[in-house]
Design brief:
With about 500 residues, the protein is an alpha/beta fold. It is built from eleven helices and 22 strands. The strands form six sheets. A six-stranded mixed sheet has the order 8-7-6-9-11-10, with helices on both faces. It has a six-stranded mixed sheet with strand order 21-20-12-13-14-22, with helices on both faces. The protein has a three-stranded mixed sheet with strand order 2-1-5, with helices on one face. A hairpin with a 4-residue loop joins strand 7 and strand 8. The longest helix has about 30 residues. The radius of gyration is 22 Å and the shape is globular.
């Protein structure tokens, strides 16, 4: 069901689906509402007036026709609401005239922004499930299907997904440029290149990037359109991470920073303007709803935050409706809260104090989590943490040496940092060092569409990247073994919850 949202004082309006956040609705309408914290509800900067209530746009969801009053300071120019950066990404030097399409091809989700190339304005935003999911949840399953002769089938599925988005966007022949960021396997399959060779040493891409015409791409865009993909450094660190690094500004920073992209795969980068080391740790789909009976993606009906008080689980639900399952941020909160309330031990085993139903801890109705699922999540977070620790140790550094820790990926927006640190997923370096980027893979693709200097920075950053193969790194195995439990935590610390 669609609802009309009208923004004042601009008078702009948009029709959006139920459960869409007000900040995302504003973005679709071309109205700026600043969300410096990446849409987590923490900074309090996105206050709007709806009726008699003053609410945060990023955590208020559309459930009816509504009129939203936006402070005039936030309605003066148009930028994407997911951007954490307010600085200029470079000169305005668009890749084409007409319309442009920025795309992030994720293993699970495809997101896209339609751009007016005359001024760089984001006209509308879209997302959809990657149609390739029917052939496997992760990149290894997709590679195996390609190895079995399924490259064309996989390419057809991603083109169907992207062309569906283009149809909804109403772009078609008016789209004269497309810039795509995605992991290495997704970019290979988009252009129809068999990714099978990349799974063997030395784990290098068959192609690092591509620059083809709209007709060659198979997309329903102008036949003469320029379709470009971000460069990929290795089999498992792709153009999405290149995009993340440059968008975060790590490539021009004096201080050394860490970037963690949390998705179906867990990619990590460490460096500054002088050097960049990257790696990938196969995290699996646990934080995107995979492998968990009650797991689901972050959509209306998903429990996205949890706190346990006096043995009772309190939670918030995207869209404010009856819960259907738990998304990644809720899963991280749940594990942290179970541990802090002595319901599980540091290895994920239920304690004697656990009150279970059919071997599961129940949050609501039949939505809950089992001991094997808890241990699966712990193994997943261990892979992410040990990858970050391995990069830092290989450069002779400590976490305390880091200037910033960037959290990338759409899922990263909603993670409660206290919960993530509690379960040992992210380094405990102090809240002031963490920066939420949102979907910086998409934001980087968008910047590349309109900025010549940003495109130059992509090439420069790519040239200085070094890939660390964790499968042959003894430091990683040492760290991974040590990270397969929940670290000791002060029991007085309870993660904050976004109600």
């Amino acid at each position: 069901m669609g609802f009309t949202v009208r923004f004042l004082p601009s008078g702009k309006g948009v029709v959006v689906d139920a459960g869409t956040s007000v900040s995302d609705a504003a973005k679709s309408a071309g109205v700026q509402i600043a969300t410096p914290c990446g849409g987590t509800g923490r900074c309090g900067r996105c206050v709007v007036q709806i009726g008699d209530d003053r609410l945060l746009a990023c955590v208020t969801y559309v459930d009816r026709d509504m009129t939203v009053n936006v402070p005039e300071v936030d309605g003066s120019k148009v930028i994407a609401a997911v951007d954490y950066l307010e600085s200029d990404v470079g000169d305005f030097d668009p890749l084409s005239s007409g319309l442009g399409l920025a795309v992030d091809i994720g293993t699970t989700t495809v997101a896209a922004d339609l751009i007016d190339m005359s001024d760089g304005r984001c006209i509308s935003s879209f997302s959809d499930v990657n149609g390739q999911k029917v052939l496997g949840d992760d990149v290894l399953a997709r590679i195996q299907h390609a190895a079995d002769g399924g490259t064309s089938e996989l390419r057809g599925l991603i083109l169907k997904t992207m062309n569906g988005i283009i149809e909804r966007a109403g772009g078609g022949d008016n789209i004269e440029s497309v810039y795509i960021a995605g992991n290495t396997v997704m970019e290979h399959l988009f252009v129809g290149v068999d990714p099978t060779p990349i799974r063997e040493e030395p784990y290098v891409p068959v192609i690092t990037s591509s620059d083809i015409t709209g007709e060659e791409s198979g997309l329903d865009v102008s036949k003469s359109a320029r379709v470009v993909t971000m460069p990929c450094i290795s089999a498992y660190v792709g153009g999405d991470i290149t995009s993340d690094i440059v968008y975060a500004g790590m490539d021009i920073s004096e201080g050394i920073s860490l970037l963690i992209d949390v998705g179906t795969n867990g990619e990590v980068a460490l460096g500054n303007k002088d050097m960049m080391m990257v790696c990938s740790s196969s995290a699996g789909p646990a934080f995107e709803g995979g492998n968990l009976r009650s797991g689901m993606m972050a959509r209306p009906g998903a429990i996205d935050s949890i706190v346990i008080e006096d043995g009772i689980a309190r939670f918030t639900v995207i869209g404010g409706m009856e819960p259907k399952g738990i998304c990644g941020s809720g899963i991280i909160d749940l594990i942290a809260q179970l541990y802090l309330n002595d319901i599980i031990d540091k290895r994920g085993n239920f304690t004697d104090s656990a009150r279970l139903m059919d071997g599961r801890y129940i949050v609501h109705g039949d939505i809950g989590i089992s001991e094997p699922e808890i241990k699966d999540v712990i193994m997943t977070k261990a892979a992410i943490f040990s990858a970050t620790r391995s990069l830092v140790r290989n450069l002779g550094l400590e976490f305390s040496d880091l200037e910033k820790v960037y959290i990338a990926g759409g899922f990263g927006n909603f993670i409660n940092m206290d919960s993530a640190i509690t379960i040992g997923m992210f380094p405990d370096v102090g809240a002031d060092k963490f920066v939420y980027l949102g979907n910086s893979s998409l934001a980087g693709a968008r910047a590349a569409l309109v900025s010549g200097s940003f495109r130059e920075r992509i090439d420069d950053a790519f040239a200085k990247m070094t890939y660390l193969d964790l499968s042959s790194d003894p430091v990683f195995y040492d760290e991974y073994t040590s990270a397969q439990f929940i670290p000791h935590t002060d029991s007085a610390l309870f993660p904050s919850v976004r109600f």
